[in-house]
Write a structure and sequence with these properties.
671 residues; alpha/beta; UDP-n-acetylglucosamine1-carboxyvinyl-transferase, Chain; 3 domains; five-stranded parallel beta sheet; elongated
Length: 671
């Protein structure tokens, strides 16, 4: 997951391959709470691991549930038949509406002394209609801030079950879902009726709730979409095991990707497009109907049990007018697809966008305009006009701490003008799809020259490895420590029982060409094995010198270094990154420091590792190595002609990182 302040997406051209989606947020949090309300143990498979589900898991543990999570499997021992906590509990719900609303209802019906609060945006999201309905039932709920909004305090109720419970349906379907999940706790000796006031929006989400309630033994009688009757004697029953479907809302981004991007780049953009694993047309989630809207716009979609395949069909896409009440979350993706259409697209009946993680109508309009689009908006609709070639603009997309805004606008990088797009606060996707960008990059393709590279070269002990790994982390880029590759190659050759001599040159070169090495900060991993200490030893350096004189090995390692140029970008450090390996890199930095300063740094490193060292000898050794490196016939140590020189003799690492980031920002200008 990217934890950077922003993520710069280079222009992308094609997309093909398979994506396996994470579990549905809507289903995951419903299943967790329902499992907690049962007696006995429920094993939940394919659970989404995200910010919202973690919020729910923490809350359930606070209530006394035994919850064991192993990967995507959770084992929940429920509270049914057990006393709920008597002590006061404060719950922090983040910005998780799918946790806040149903948990509030369950706590209010069960009773206790509970406080529920969240992030500032949660305190702006309305909950008054749910609170009004619960108060009609006799629940005791107080507002701790502004009336109609969290935070809330819940106390012991005096339940009144002799009349229907009214709830508005035109603000959020989560209010009705919350009541449907909580009221079986009170329907032990009489039926309870819920009456929906106004038009019920997002009906497919209520269908999910009813489907899951049935799995847990609650057979709600639905009378149209206006009345719901929870039968007397209702009692939650664990299904034993339950599987969470993949998230149909998350599927929308890859359905759109298949419709927007040409297919297999090895076939000139033709052939197989995007295959989505984990959800199919028979999903219980209403957002799967996004595939119908995408097909209207021109996507070619086929489906089977638990999978979808999407290819580009009509191009440009077709502008449409659509009532999106049934797909409120997924409909946001249509707004970005509209930029690639042949005419305007109007999305109607989307008033619920205004009370989500942010005001999504405003957000989608504002950020689309940054890209150059003409947009009109109303109380419950938005019209987006397409962007023809020559009109796309570089844009830094503000994401409003809204995961769907970030994921939607990532699709703008397939634009005809090949301009990059910056996504601010990319980690907000953790709410539902923590590995979204990794999944996108796994199937997206672009010309190698579109993938940015920053080179940091310099003499031994100048600190280029530390600087490069820090800048890579700040940008969310891959990191290449070229100096470690000869050491790793020698280590791997010895592990494969090869000698480090010319007799095994061809075998070592073949091994080096596909060496499974990667870098995490300053840690070096070979496959899944940490080899950092093994290759940094004095013997590791001597072994590296042996293989570095083998021409076939050097050639193979050049190929390997080029393979590190992957989306979204690369930080490469070494002695010839900017002069030999990546001569066209848009930013090259030559890092220097005085021999005295470098000797002092090396001395401190050795002392910390428990080695004795003489600082004068270290300085002499560094000066001698500098002379050798600068005078060698192959790739001598020297700044590239267009490199920016950075002397960090008196700079902290933080100051050095800041300087490189300033230089990089000056080359990445976004409107």
């Amino acid at each position: 997951m990217f934890s950077t302040a922003f993520l710069d997406l280079p222009p992308l051209q094609c997309a093909s391959g398979t994506v396996t989606l994470p579990g549905s947020k809507s289903i995951s949090n419903r299943v967790l709470l329902l499992s907690a309300l049962c007696q006995g143990t429920t094993v939940v498979h394919d659970l989404l691991d995200s910010d919202d589900t973690r919020v729910m898991l923490v809350a359930l543990r606070q209530l006394g549930c035994e919850v064991d999570v192993a990967g995507t499997t959770a084992t929940v021992t429920g509270l049914g038949g057990r006393a709920w906590p008597a002590e006061a509990i404060e719950f922090f719900m983040g910005n998780a509406g799918t946790a806040m609303r149903p948990l509030t209802a369950a706590l209010a019906v069960q009773g206790g002394d509970f406080t529920l609060k969240g992030v500032p945006r949660m305190h702006e999201r309305p909950i008054g209609d749910l609170v009004d309905a619960l108060r009609e039932l006799g629940c005791n709920i107080d507002y701790l801030g502004n009336a109609g909004f969290p935070p809330l305090r819940v106390r012991q109720p005096e339940l009144q079950l002799d009349k229907p419970i009214p709830v508005r349906g035109d603000v959020s379907s989560q209010f009705l879902t919350a009541l449907l999940m909580a009221l079986p706790l009170a329907a032990t000796d009489r039926a309870i009726t819920i009456e929906v006031i106004g038009e019920l929006i997002s009906k497919p989400y209520i269908a999910i709730t009813l489907n899951l309630l049935a799995r847990y033994g609650i057979a709600v009688e639905r009378q149209g979409w206006e009345r719901f009757v929870i039968p007397a004697g209702s009692r939650y029953q664990s299904p034993g095991t339950i599987h969470v479907e993949a998230d149909a809302s998350s599927a929308s981004y890859f359905i759109a990707l298949g419709a927007i991007a040409a297919g297999d780049p090895s076939k000139g953009g033709q052939g197989k497009g995007i295959r989505i694993q984990g959800v199919g047309a028979d999903s219980i989630q209403g957002d799967i109907r996004f595939m119908d809207a995408a097909a209207q716009m021109g996507a070619k979609i086929t489906s089977g049990p638990n999978w979808l395949e999407i290819q580009r069909g009509a191009w440009p896409l077709k502008g449409i007018t659509l009532d999106c009440n049934h797909i409120p979350d997924a409909a946001m993706t249509l707004a970005v697809m509209a930029l690639y259409a042949d005419g305007p697209t109007t999305l109607c009946n989307i008033a619920s966008w205004r009370v989500k993680e942010t005001d999504r109508i405003v957000a989608m309009a504002t950020e689309s305009r940054k890209l150059g689009a003409t947009v009109e908006e109303g109380p419950d609709w938005i019209t987006i006009h397409p962007l023809p070639e020559g009109k796309w603009q570089r844009a830094s997309i503000h994401t409003y701490d809204d995961h769907r805004v970030a994921m939607c606008f990532s699709l703008a990088v397939f634009n005809a003008d090949q301009v990059p797009v910056r996504i601010e606060d990319p980690q907000c996707v953790a709410k539902t799809f923590p590995d979204y960008f990794e999944a996108l990059f796994s199937v997206a393709h672009t010309a190698t020259q579109n993938i940015p590279v920053i080179c940091i070269d310099g003499p031994t002990a100048s600190g280029k490895g530390t600087l490069a790994s820090r800048v890579a982390a700040a940008l969310g880029y891959h990191y290449l420590d070229s100096g470690a590759l000869y050491r790793v190659t020698a280590h791997a050759a010895l592990q494969a029982s090869l000698t480090l001599e010319a007799a095994d040159e061809a075998a070592i070169a073949e091994l080096a060409r596909s060496l499974p090495v990667h870098f995490e900060g300053e840690q070096v991993l070979l496959g899944n094995v940490d080899v950092t200490d093994a290759i940094r030893s004095e013997q590791g350096g001597m072994n590296a010198s042996k293989v570095s004189v083998l021409p076939a090995v050097r050639e193979a390692l050049v190929e390997l270094q080029h393979s590190f140029q992957r989306l979204p970008g690369l930080l490469a450090d070494g002695r010839d990154m900017g002069t030999v390996i990546f001569p066209n890199a848009p930013l090259k930095v030559f890092l220097t420091a005085s021999a005295a300063e470098r000797a002092e740094r090396r001395h401190k490193q050795l002392i910390l590792k428990g080695f004795s060292a003489n600082i004068d000898a270290l300085r002499a050794d560094l000066e001698a190595r500098d002379a050798r490196d600068m005078s060698r016939s192959v790739a001598p140590l020297q700044p590239a002609q267009d490199a920016l020189q950075l002397d960090n003799s008196t700079l902290t690492i933080e100051a050095s990182v800041e300087q490189v980031m300033v230089w990089w920002q000056s080359r990445q200008v976004f409107g």
